[in-house]
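User: Before I run my own analysis I want an independent prediction to cross-check against. Here's the chain; please return only the structure tokens and, at the end, one sentence I can use as a sanity check.
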Amino acid sequence: MDDTFTLFFDGCSKGNPGKAGAGAVIYKNSTEIFSISSYVGDKETNNIAEYTGLIIGLSEAINLKIKKLNVKGDSELIIKQMNDEYKVKSTNILQLFKNAKKLTELFDEITFNHVYRNDNKRADELANNSLL
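Assistant: Structure tokens:
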């Protein structure tokens, strides 16, 4: 049996910086098994919100004892940073990046892939719902 787990994450900031939210959703095969909306703060950037969504999702995947994970997000910056294609130059996200990288060490296999916003609707919805 193929147990493919996929994490979609997203973050949003109204004002950038502004009111920010994060969302994460995990699928087993194509069934949603976890989702969360999380309020990030009143004066946060979009990148902080995106990393928060990623970290929440990775943490829950670890709690669920998932060992192989496909991670998908519509932030090209975060995906490329997690794949070590881009350096983290911004000091305000450096610690979040380090936290996310540390979490990846707890998986046997993990991949990061960029998807377009229209393929990330559920995580986007969750991120925006945290601002309601």
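Sanity check: The helical segments are 46-63, 76-82, 91-104, 121-129.
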